[in-house]
Amino acid sequence: MAPSFLWLQYNFAVDIVMELFDTHCHLTDLPLSHDLDAVLRRAQEAGVSRFIVPGYDLASSRTACRLAAAYPSIGAAVGLHPAWINNNSDNRFSPEPFRQLARLRSPVAIGEIGLDYALKDYSVNTQEIVLRTQLELAALLTLPVIIHCRRAFEPLYLILREFPSVIGVIHAYGGGPKLTEKFLALGYYIGFGGGVTRPNARKVRETALIVPPERILLETDAPYIGSHTVAKGESEPKDCLAVAESLAVLRRWSPTETAVLTTANAVRLFNL
Fold first, then answer.
1. What is the spatial distance between Cα 266 and Cα 259, in angstroms, rounded to a whole number?
2. Whole-angstrom Cα distance, residue 18 to residue 111?
């Protein structure tokens, strides 16, 4: 018999020794950065004690690295997100500033990088050039990648396939069950956040049922992605607890199994 949701809530609340790992949260950004110590304290009280903070441009990547240097519980990632690409600079993008930052600050990943065809104004050519360049950097530095993707999962797959030495996580995965096997075959992990807490998020929840246990990561994308009970723009790393609860119910795992599995996956992927 599957454990009841109330039983899971109780056990997640009292078993505070369990360690949850939010593998994608923007602690560099408002409102989280305004009172970071309080944000981290609330996360700790919810059992969330480790964090990956991805950059999305050079400035945020530098800030993420500064946070990682100041807080042992934080790992930084550096990269250029497709929404921050200058579409007129397809032949002028240089990974050199990110390479230098990575050499100096030892981030745990290259990210957040990827493709986003849901943007209002974008160039497919530019996005693909910048993505390939950053995947080359990840291969050079032997680092995993944190991938952002919207409405571009097939093109993304074809590009990732060109870099067999690179693995990483498809964050906030929305590609559905049919495409999942392709990314898993490349060695990628799948990140689940607030979407899995929503009862009507059929595609996300179906995907969560088929991903092998050793390839699942927890995340919040705080403060940007909300959940069934938290509005978009108001989430915090502490809400990783609700993601873990929902995933445990879906997979019929115990709270301890969920925490141990997903944290071990994060440690393994990011070489911590």
1. 11
2. 27
Q: Whole-prediction pTM value?
A: 0.92
Tokens of 256: 């301890």
How many distinct structural domains can be found in the chain? 1
Please give the Cα distance from 28 to 254 (Å, whole number).
Answer: 33
Q: Are the C-beta atoms of residues 111 and 60 closer than 8 Å to each other?
A: no
Cβ within 8 Å of residue 111, ≥6 positions away:
54, 55, 77, 78, 79, 145, 146, 147, 148, 168, 171
Return the CATH number at 95: 3.20.20.140
pLDDT digits (tens, 9 = 90+) for 205-262: 999 999 999 999 999 999 999 999 999 999 999 999 999 999 999 999 999 999 999 9
CA 245 to CA 253: how far, in whole Å? 9
Domain that includes residue 181, residue range = 5-269
5-35 per-position pLDDT tens digit: 333 444 444 344 579 999 999 999 999 999 9
Count Cα atoms within 13 angstroms, Cβ side, for 67: 29
